[in-house]
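Consider the following input, taken from an annotated entry for DSBA-like thioredoxin domain-containing protein (Genlisea aurea).
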Amino acid sequence: IPAKQDGFWFQRERAEDKSVLIEAFFDPVCPDSRDSWPPLRKALGFYGSLVTLVLHPFPLPYHDNAFVTCQALHVVDDLNTSATYDLLEAFFDNQEAFYNEATSNVSRDDVIDKTVKFVSNQLGTSYNRSAVEEGFLDPKSNQATRVSFKYGCLRGVYGTPFFFVNGFPLPDAGSALDYQGWVDVLDPLVTKR
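Applying the prediction step yields:
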């Protein structure tokens, strides 16, 4: 059985063989990743099938609980691929619950428990607590999170957000790109198809 490719497809698959491919490396508890998501999502809506996105979770070692939240994305993606981006957005909307003072005096097990409860509450009854807990206990989700980090390092990723378009890195990694920035990048590529 071939290994699963790293990353989560937005709307699950590449829409057209000749579509522009964006690869985004995000950390769910990174404020810059959070700020870069709305303009990127708006651009994806504007360009439709002409642009495809695959998101790679990249747990920055200096962000508290980045690994746990990235692992949660892998757990949910294994349970239901259509909920992965919903969870990413929920983490973005509630980042302050997962770092600094909110988790400074708790153990890693307590953070995982808090994350399991959060995932179950955010995504509804189809994600019962036991299924999410089992996902965290499964060594495959831990390994997938490690592979995501190593894959990013292999590609030269050193911060989030970090973007590649058709395999080429965009400048200003670690900074949010606004909607007009995406239009400036994508328009020439889409018109040359």
